[in-house]
Predict the 3D structure of the following.
Amino acid sequence: MTVRPSTEADLPAITAIYGWNVLNGLGTFEEDPPAMEEMRRRRASFLERGLPYLVAEAEGIVLGYAYAGPFRLRAAYRYTVEDSVYVSPDAVGKGVGKALLSRLIVECEALGLRQMCAVIGDSGNAASISLHAAMGFEMKGTFPDMGHKFGRWVDLVWMQRALNGGGSHPPDSPGLSLSGV
């Protein structure tokens, strides 16, 4: 398995993986799978900010993807990102998520960022919660009944991991560009 920056050619697989997760999972609160053009626009918005948007592949098949997005679009949050990791249903439990998140952390640290948050849909999402805990994320809280999907209320789990020492010292990079907001 290889983890690498995504390309335009990966968009059909990325769109299919996300679409499956929208229709079958609680990791995203979206209810209608976006079209490939919308996924292209979203990917471009992260890349324009210099943020990583990665895929994991084996034998030319995209197994999953991950990206870091701005945590919030206010200037003081410029050192904080939120991670997103999505794995093909055929690749779940094979280390794809760990490989993607591990590389995402390294790339965000290289950007001088200081915090990474995970906002996980469904407090019963043991796979995502365990993955993040194994990668050094700490549980910060559960927000009950934040979304309603598949006919039931769904919690949000909040986890956080310090990057580059977190808030232990002043920033040594300009952080993300959040201009234009």
